[in-house]
Amino acid sequence: MIGYLNLILRLAIWFLLTANLSVANIIIGVSIALLLPGRPKTPGALKDWLRALGEVIVAIVQAYVEALEIIIRPHNHEDVVMERVKPQRTPGLIFLDIFLITFTPKTIVLKYHEDGWYEVHRVRRRND
């Protein structure tokens, strides 16, 4: 059986594509959402997604702080570092990690290495 979040996502995509909330379309959408094959569920996936949601909130605040820092004190030194991917990340969580790193003004992911590393470009002040 597919997870509730996956079912809701599939139905939301179906209703956005069809733009029709008739009874027949709802039945067709639920049938298709249940019949489409799903990935095997991982037991800690929901906990990881909730933790990732908290990281998104922190990243939004961090983005504003970093933008103000760049405006007030120019950052003229840059480097490329390798950061380790957190263990046992699903492809969706890896995408979210890359998005969060790139969302902040001082960092951007240049490349994701399949062996579990992000190549990250960052700007900083010389004395940081």
Structure write-up:
This protein is α+β, with helices and mostly antiparallel strands and 128 residues long. The protein has two domains: 4-35, no CATH class; 45-124, no CATH class. Helix content is 54%, strand content 18%. It contains four helices and three strands. It has helices at 4-18, 23-35, 45-72, 91-103; strands spanning 77-84, 107-113, 117-124. Strands 1-3-2 form a three-stranded antiparallel β-sheet, covered by helices on one side. Helix 1 packs across helix 2 and helix 3 (45-72) packs parallel to helix 4. The longest helix has 28 residues, at 45-72. It starts with a helix and ends with a strand. The model has no long low-confidence stretch (mean pLDDT 84).
List the helices and strands and how they pair.
Elements: H1 4-18, H2 23-35, H3 45-72, E1 77-84, H4 91-103, E2 107-113, E3 117-124
Helix pairs in contact: 1-2, 3-4
Give the % helix. 40-55%
Number of domains: 2
What value does the average pLDDT take?
A: 84
Main beta sheet strand tally, sense and closure: 3 strands, antiparallel
Q: Please indicate the percent range of residues in DSSP E strands (runs of 2 or more).
A: 15-25%
Number of strands: 3
The coarse overall form would be elongated
**What order do the strands of the largest sheet run in, or round the barrel if closed?**
1-3-2
Cα-based radius of gyration, to the nearest Å: 20 Å
- Total number of helical segments? 4
Report the span from N to C terminus: 50 Å
Unreliable sequence segments: none
Order of helices and strands: HHHEHEE
Structural class: alpha+beta
